[in-house]
Write a structure and sequence with these properties.
The protein is mostly helical. Helices cover 83% and strands 0% of the residues. The protein has 8 helices and no strands. It has helices at residues 3-47, 54-67, 70-96, 100-120, 126-148, 160-176, 183-209, 214-234.
Length: 235
């Protein structure tokens, strides 16, 4: 192989790695939007608890225990149990396949299943609890899938540390009088913004079409899987 061919292959490989990195960045941001939509669906549409924000659910669980509010207690506990089940399931999926795509495929199946249940069966009582459990499992799986991308320390569902790191990055630039923020800081800010936009879109949609808002989450995850498939084909 000639020197020119070697250099050309290096340039093409470098270009492809950049494309893969951009796809991963888009994927993590889309997953943050999914979390916003599904969290709103769980809180407003189902049981007044979160499906992705487990810090909030632990607080709600404490409120339920302290005030003896049975409904809050049971719903927060159910969401926490579902989230833990999702993480445990992800451990087994990773042992078998080891890819984020496999995890996200299972998440897509779970959210699509929830959407079909909502479409076909009146939601209330036990059905509402079942959907809450399924969505919490899906969000537990997404948390690990997002972390596996290893982008700026993002998990796509836990944003407290993301917000802290974002503010820290902004303050670091201001103190050093630097000209621009790091890519990680931009990604953290983007993650917070996409979660916010997902929640806003979910809230507006829930008022208009109710629980069928879940189809926004289905569409976003379909886009994620499409990007994942392009990434795998490139390899």
């Amino acid at each position: 192989m000639s020197i020119d061919a070697v250099e050309r292959n290096k340039k093409e490989g470098k270009k492809e790695r950049k494309m893969q990195m951009k796809r991963d960045h888009i994927i993590i941001l889309l997953l943050c939007a999914v979390s916003g939509v599904i969290d709103v669906l769980g809180y407003i549409g189902l049981s007044h608890v979160f499906t992705a924000n487990m810090t909030g659910n632990i607080v709600l669980l404490g409120i339920g225990i302290g005030d003896a509010r049975q409904v809050v207690l049971s719903n927060a506990a159910l969401a926490l149990v579902g989230f833990v089940i999702g993480i445990i399931a992800t451990v087994f999926i990773q042992r078998k396949s080891g890819t984020s795509r496999s995890i996200l495929t299972w998440e897509f199946i779970l959210i699509l299943l929830s959407a079909i249940i909502i479409l076909l069966i009146p939601v209330g009582g036990v059905i509402s609890s079942i959907i809450l459990l399924i969505l919490s499992i899906a969000m537990g799986m997404q948390t690990i899938a997002g972390r596996n991308l290893k982008i700026a320390g993002l998990s796509s569902t836990v944003l407290t540390s993301t917000l802290a790191a974002f503010v820290e990055g902004v303050m670091g630039v201001m103190q050093k009088n630097a000209q621009k923020l790091s890519l990680d800081t931009y990604l953290r800010g983007g993650a917070i913004l996409l979660y916010l936009l997902g929640a806003a879109a979910g809230s507006l949609s829930e008022r208009l079409i109710g629980l069928h808002t879940i189809w926004i989450g289905v569409a976003l995850l379909a886009a994620v899987l499409l990007l994942q498939s392009k990434k795998n084909r490139a390899r």
